[in-house]
Amino acid sequence: DSSAEWQDVSVAGGYSVPSDDLWSFTQWGNQILAVNIDDPTQTYTMGTSALFANLAGSPPQARQIAVVRDFVVVGDTWDGVDGFQTQRVRWSAIGDPTSWTVSAATQSDFQDLSGPNGTVKKVIGGEFGTIFQERAITRMTYVGSPAIFQFDTIEESRGTPASGSVVKLGRNIFYLGDDGFYVFDGVQSTPISHNKISKTFLDDLDTDYYHRITAALDPINQIIMWSYPGSGNSNGTPNRVVSFNYSQDAKYRWSYSEIE
Question: What span, in angstroms and rounded, lies between the C-alpha atoms of 131 and 160?
């Protein structure tokens, strides 16, 4: 609709999240759920809501959110009891995103991915969850009570420093690692940028602003794009885009462009 205009549907009173931080969104039925670490989890019902509102049930605040099977799952959390838990993954009651009290009956619980693998950077949903930490990729599989979910580390010593770089395409997940771009197929990661491509990008990337990297998928043209702050950026504002053409018939896989 070319006549449509952007509308501010923020919760009454606004938010505390810093201007350079990011939100994470997911969809539960006809609800949009949104999180950041500084504000209560938000909900917006499509077709009926005028504004976002705080989600009922006192869910933890979090940086990441996804839907895994019949659960809302959040990662890198804060709550009033345990404070900041950067390696924690927590999930709602089965079938109820407004129930977060740990309970064997409802199956709401949490898992701390303790160890040297760093912060939970991304949770990708679906029939199973895929959890990216800074130095690991873990599969989250529903097994029912009493364990509820089984956690298996699939990749060790390889994760992502940039949560916004992770993008799902079918059963594949593309992401930026410490040494270049990869695709994860649920079993292993395969590099998609080699030698000169990786070096050129990493030499240009301003690593003080990993959190400003974002990814977008263009399924029509079969291109994945990552915007990032390169050399000459202004206070971390992304000024370049690197694009990967995943079409089997692509003549050129990689391209760079400037953001005007």
Answer: 10
